[in-house]
Design a protein that fits this description.
By secondary structure, this protein is mostly beta strands. It folds into eight domains: 111 residues, Immunoglobulin-like; 96 residues, Immunoglobulins (Immunoglobulin-like, Sandwich); 89 residues, Immunoglobulins (Immunoglobulin-like, Sandwich), CATH 2.60.40; 38 residues; 117 residues, Immunoglobulins (Immunoglobulin-like), CATH 2.60.40.10; 95 residues, Sandwich (Immunoglobulin-like), CATH 2.60.40; 110 residues, Immunoglobulins (Immunoglobulin-like), CATH 2.60.40; 143 residues, Immunoglobulins (Immunoglobulin-like). 6% of the residues lie in helices and 47% in strands. Bound molecules: 2-acetamido-2-deoxy-beta-D-glucopyranose (NAG) (4 copies). Pfam families: C1-set, V-set.
Length: 852
C-alpha cells in the first residue's frame, strides 16, 4: 500500500520534472520531409524521437499516425489500433523509432502523413509526405513498315504515375518530329496510360533504320526505351465470301488473307461487331491465312453483318471485311435444319503461298448422324498465284481418310499424296513442283471432321483440262467430289497501234495475245463524254503452242474527230467463261497518241537596222490538221510576252500546211520584221504552237536578238590641214577609226596621232561619227603633194573594215583642190583609179590631194 502511495508521489514528482523539462524540449521528433516509394511495394515512413533522460517509460508514451485527417495508427499504454496494411515495430519504439510501415502501397496512399509522439506530458508532431511513383512500361507494338506507304507506329506507355511524362521518337538516335500524343487515360488503380503514334513512309531504297520510343519520367533515373530495327512487310489482302455445303442448309463463310508478310495474321469473326459466344468458346487453331465459319440457318447466328477482322504486323487497326447475311441466305430449306451447329474452321494458307491447314469444331447434335462431304470450294484465283481447293467432311464415326487425285486430258487419274516427298511422279508432273496438300482433323463426341486442302499454281497449258477429285473414306464408305479446272484462265497482253489512212482516217488496231480460254469479245466505241459503238473488223483467233490464243481487231475513226481533245476512243474486251476483262482508252491528249507536232529551231536572219528580217520555223509530224501558230515578243530585259500582229513593222505570211507521205502534216511559220536597232536589239520573238494533242503549247524562241547598223561614209572633206570624214548609220555605237600617212610613196604608212572623233546619236537610234585628222603638222617641210593618207573604219557590222586611201595624182596637182569634197558626188567624175575591191564593204578611193 505504502509502496503504491510512494510510487504515485514519485510519479507525480516525475511528471513535474518532465513538465519543467518541456521548456527545454525534452522530447525531440525527427522525420524526413519527403519519402518516395514505388507502387506495389512496402513503404517506410521514418519517424524517430529522443527523450532527454532515457530509459523511456512506456507508460507515458503514445504514438499517433495520421494520413490527412484520418488516424491510421494509435499506440499507447492500452495497446495498438491500426488500419490494415499499416504497422509499427513495437520493440523499436523504446529505442525512439516510431517509423510506420505501409505494405503494398497504391496511388491512393500518396499524401501527407503526421507522426505524433506523446511522452506525457510532452507532445510533438511532424509531417512527412509520401510520394508514390509507378514506372512506365514502354512497348512499340507494330514494328513492321510498308514501303512507299505511310505506316503508323504506336508506342504504348502504360502504368505510370504521376502523369507528367515525355515521349520521344528516335531514328538512328536522331529525334523525329511529328509524332502525335494520344489522350491520357487513367487506370482503375490510379496509374496512367498513353499512346504516341508516328507515321513513317519509307521509300524503296531506305535500309533498316533503328527506331526507338524513348520515355522520360520522374520515376526513371535514365529514360526507358523500346528500340528495334525496322522490318518491311506487306499488309494482307482480305476477302470474305460464302459457299454452300453439299445438300445442307449450312453455309461456309470463308475469310482469306493473302500476300502478306511476315507471318502470322490473326483472323477473327465478328457478328454485328461482337465476337459470337460459340466462337469465343472455340479454340485458336494457330491458323495463319484463312478462316472458315460454317453457319447454321436456325442456330444462334441468323441475320446480320458477319465480319472478318484481320490483324497483322503492318496494320495499326485490323482490316475488316463484312458480309451482310440476308434471311434467304440462312433460310431453313430442310426440315431437319432446326438443330445443327456452327462449325468453325480455320485454315492455314501461307501468304508466300505454301501450306494450308484447317481446323474446325462442331457443336454437334444428334442430327449429324450421317457422314457428309462438301463440294470442292476454291479460293480466289489470281493469275500466277496459288489457288487453294478445299473440301470438308463431317460426322464420320471414325477418322476418315482423304484422297486427292487429279486427271489430265489423257484421262488417267493419279493420286496426290499429302506428303510431297512421297508424291508419285505423275501427280507431281501434273501439278507442278510446288503443290501442297494439307489435312486438319478435329472431333467431338466421337465424331470426326476433316478439312483438307490442295494448293497449286494454275497454268493454262498444264491444267486447262484437269479434273480434281477429293475422296473421303469413312468407315469403308467413300464419298467423292470433283471439280473441273475450267476456272483457269489467262488474261491477254494488249497492244494498240495507230496509223493514218490515205483518206485521213485513224486506223486503230488492238492486238490481244496469249489469253485463255478462246472466246473473247471486243467492242470499240468513241465520243466526247458519251460513247457510241463503232464498227470494227475482228480477226480470227490464232492458237499458240502453249494452248493460248491471239487475236486482233481494227477500227477506223474519222481523223477530224480528234480535233476535240475531249474526244476519246475506247476498246473493251471480255473473256467468255471467266471474269477477265480489260479496256484501253485514248484521245489526242494521251502520251501514246503518235502525232504531236514538233518544231525545228527558228531560223534567224542577220538583223540589219532599217532592213527586213524574216524568221521562220518548221513544224512537222502533226495530225489532225488543226495547228494554231502565234508569234510573241518579249522586250529586252522584260518578262511579259506580247502578241505580235500584222502591222507596218510586222508581216505574217499565210501558212501553208502540207500533207506528207505518212499522212501527217507540216508547215512553215514565218514572221517578217522591219528591223530597228533601237527597239529590236535584245528583244526576243517566240513562235508558239497549239494542237489538240498538246496540253501545253510548244514554244520556240529566237533568243535575245542582236541588231547591227552598217556604217556608211557620208563625206570626206579637206579643210586646211584637216581631213574630215563623216560616218553615219552604224549600230551599236562602238566604232574604230584610224588614220595613217605615208611620204613620197604609198607604202610604209605611219599612224597619225592627232585625231579627234565626235559621236552623235541619230533619232532612229543609230550613231554618226565625225573624225577629224590633222594631216599636216607645222614641221612638215615637204611638198604637200608627196603625202598619202589612209583611213580605216572598223565596226562589228563590217567585215572586212572600210579602208580609204587619199593618193596624190601625179602631174596634175591642181585638179584635186577639193574643198569640200563630197565623196559620193565625186565618184562619178574625179580622176581616180580603183586599186582593188575586196568585198562589198571595202572601198578604195584614190584621189589626188592638193594642199596649199
Ligand atoms: C526503425 O524501424 C524500422 C522497422 O520498423 C527499420 O526498418 C528502420 O531502419 C529503423 N530506423 C532506425 C533509425 O533505426
Ligand atoms: C497489392 O494491392 C493490389 C491492389 O490493391 C492487389 O491487387 C495485390 O494483390 C496486392 N498485393 C499483395 C501482395 O497484397
Ligand atoms: C492505345 O492504342 C490501343 C490500340 O488502338 C488501344 O487499345 C488503347 O486503348 C490505346 N490506349 C490509350 C491510352 O489510348
Ligand atoms: C449491317 O450493316 C448495314 C450497312 O452497314 C446496316 O445498315 C445494318 O443495319 C447492319 N445490320 C445489323 C443487324 O447490324
Amino acid at each position: 500500500m505504502e509502496d503504491s502511495v510512494t510510487g504515485k508521489v514519485l510519479g507525480f514528482l516525475l511528471s513535474l520534472l518532465l513538465l519543467q523539462h518541456r521548456h527545454c524540449s525534452a522530447l525531440e521528433v525527427t522525420v524526413p520531409p519527403d519519402q518516395s516509394s514505388p507502387m506495389g511495394r512496402d513503404a517506410l515512413l521514418p519517424c524517430t524521437f529522443r527523450v532527454d533522460n532515457p530509459p523511456m517509460n512506456p507508460k507515458f508514451l503514445a504514438i499517433l499516425w495520421h494520413f490527412g485527417d484520418k488516424e491510421v495508427l494509435r499506440y499507447d499504454n492500452k495497446g495498438k489500433v491500426s488500419s490494415p496494411r499499416v504497422s509499427i515495430d513495437e520493440r523499436a519504439l523504446l529505442e525512439g523509432n516510431a517509423s510506420l510501415s505501409l505494405s503494398n502501397v497504391t496511388v491512393s496512399d500518396g499524401g501527407t502523413y503526421r507522426c505524433s509522439v506523446i511522452y506525457s506530458p510532452e507532445t510533438q508532431k511532424k509531417e512527412i509526405r509520401l510520394r508514390i511513383h509507378a514506372l512506365p512500361e514502354v512497348v512499340v507494338a507494330k514494328r513492321t513498315l510498308v514501303r512507299n506507304q505511310g505506316t503508323a507506329l504506336r508506342c504504348s506507355v502504360t502504368d505510370f504515375y504521376p502523369q507528367r511524362i515525355t515521349v520521344t521518337w528516335l531514328r538512328n538516335g536522331k529525334v523525329l518530329p511529328n509524332s502525335a500524343l494520344g489522350p491520357l487515360q487513367q487506370n482503375a488503380d490510379g496509374t496512367f496510360r498513353l499512346n504516341s503514334t508516328l507515321t513513317l513512309t519509307p521509300s524503296d531504297t531506305e535500309d533498316t533504320p533503328e527506331i526507338a520510343c524513348l520515355v522520360q519520367h520522374e520515376s526513371l533515373p535514365t529514360p526507358r526505351r523500346d528500340s528495334f530495327r525496322v522490318q518491311y512487310g506487306v499488309p494482307p489482302s482480305v476477302q470474305v465470301y460464302s459457299a454452300k455445303i453439299n445438300g445442307r442448309p449450312e453455309q461456309v463463310l470463308v475469310c482469306e488473307a493473302s500476300q502478306f508478310q511476315p507471318e502470322p495474321v490473326r483472323i477473327q469473326w465478328l457478328l454485328n461487331g461482337k465476337i459470337p459466344e460459340d466462337l469465343k468458346k472455340s479454340r485458336d487453331g494457330g491458323f495463319k491465312t484463312g478462316s472458315y465459319y460454317v453457319i447454321n440457318p436456325t442456330g444462334g447466328i441468323q441475320v446480320g453483318n458477319i465480319s472478318c477482322a484481320v490483324e497483322h504486323e503492318t496494320l495499326l487497326l485490323p482490316i475488316t471485311e463484312t458480309l451482310q447475311l440476308s434471311p434467304e441466305d440462312t433460310e431453313a430449306k430442310y426440315s431437319a435444319g432446326n438443330i445443327a451447329a456452327a462449325i468453325f474452321l480455320t485454315m492455314l494458307l501461307m501468304g508466300a503461298g505454301i501450306t494450308a491447314g484447317l481446323w474446325f469444331l462442331i457443336y454437334k447434335r444428334k442430327y449429324f448422324q450421317r457422314f457428309r462431304v462438301s463440294h470442292i470450294h476454291r479460293s480466289q484465283t489470281v493469275e500466277g498465284k496459288k489457288v487453294t481447293l478445299y473440301c470438308v467432311a463431317s460426322d464420320c464415326p471414325k477418322g476418315p481418310r482423304v484422297i486427292w487425285s487429279v486427271q489430265g486430258h489423257d484421262g488417267k487419274k493419279t493420286e496426290v499424296a499429302e506428303d510431297e516427298a512421297q508424291a508419285e511422279g505423275e501427280g507431281k508432273m501434273l501439278l507442278g513442283q510446288e503443290f501442297t496438300v494439307r489435312t486438319d482433323r478435329t472431333g467431338t463426341d466421337g465424331r470426326h471432321n476433316v478439312t483438307s486442302s490442295l494448293s497449286f499454281t494454275p497454268d493454262v497449258s498444264a491444267h486447262k483440262d484437269m479434273v480434281v477429285f477429293c475422296k473421303f473414306v469413312c468407315d469403308g464408305k467413300a464419298k467423292e467430289e470433283q471439280l473441273h479446272c475450267s476456272f483457269i484462265s489467262a488474261k491477254p497482253k494488249d497492244y494498240i497501234k495507230l496509223s493514218l489512212s490515205d483518206s485521213g482516217e485513224v486506223l486503230s488496231r488492238l492486238t490481244l495475245q496469249e489469253f485463255y480460254p478462246r472466246g473473247i469479245q471486243i467492242r470499240w466505241s468513241c465520243g466526247v463524254g458519251h460513247y457510241q459503238e463503232l464498227e470494227s473488223i475482228n480477226e480470227r483467233f490464232t492458237p499458240n503452242s502453249n494452248y493460248t490464243y491471239n487475236t486482233e481487231s481494227e477500227c477506223k475513226i474519222l481523223g477530224q474527230l480528234f480535233t476535240d481533245p475531249g474526244f476519246k476512243v475506247r476498246v473493251t474486251w471480255n473473256q467468255q467463261s471467266s471474269t477477265g476483262q480489260g479496256s484501253r482508252e485514248f484521245s489526242a491528249r494521251d502520251p501514246e497518241f503518235p502525232w504531236c507536232p514538233w518544231m525545228e529551231e527558228i531560223i534567224k536572219p542577220a538583223l540589219k537596222h532599217n532592213s527586213e528580217g524574216r524568221f521562220q520555223c518548221e513544224i512537222r509530224g502533226y495530225f489532225p490538221k488543226a495547228l494554231e501558230v502565234k508569234w510573241l515578243r518579249r522586250e529586252a530585259g522584260g518578262q511579259e510576252l506580247f502578241s505580235v500582229s500584222p502591222s507596218e513593222k510586222y508581216k505574217i505570211p499565210e501558212m501553208e500546211q502540207k500533207k506528207e507521205a505518212d499522212g501527217t502534216f507540216s508547215c512553215t511559220a514565218a514572221l517578217i520584221v522591219s528591223v530597228s536597232g533601237k527597239s529590236d536589239n535584245g528583244a526576243e520573238f517566240i513562235c508558239r504552237v497549239g494542237h489538240p494533242s498538246l496540253g501545253e503549247p510548244l514554244d520556240r524562241s529566237t533568243g535575245a536578238l542582236s541588231v547591227t547598223g552598217v556604217p556608211v561614209v557620208r563625206s570626206c572633206t579637206q579643210r586646211g590641214k584637216y581631213i574630215i570624214m563623216e560616218i553615219d548609220q552604224f549600230y551599236p555605237q562602238d566604232i574604230g577609226v584610224t588614220w595613217q600617212r605615208a611620204e613620197k610613196e604609198p607604202k610604209d604608212y605611219k599612224p597619225i596621232p592627232d585625231v579627234q572623233n565626235k559621236l552623235y546619236q541619230n533619232s532612229d537610234g543609230t550613231y554618226r561619227l565625225t573624225s577629224i585628222c590633222e594631216g599636216m603638222g607645222l614641221m612638215d617641210r615637204m611638198n604637200p603633194n608627196d603625202f598619202y593618207f589612209t583611213a580605216r573604219v572598223q565596226h562589228e557590222a563590217l567585215n572586212p573594215p572600210i579602208q580609204k586611201e587619199f593618193l596624190r595624182k601625179e602631174g596634175n596637182p591642181q585638179t584635186a583642190v577639193l574643198s569640200p569634197i563630197h565623196m559620193w558626188g565625186y565618184l562619178g567624175f574625179l580622176p581616180f583609179t580603183q586599186i582593188s575591191v575586196h568585198s562589198t564593204y571595202l572601198y578604195f578611193l584614190h584621189f589626188y590631194l592638193y594642199l596649199d
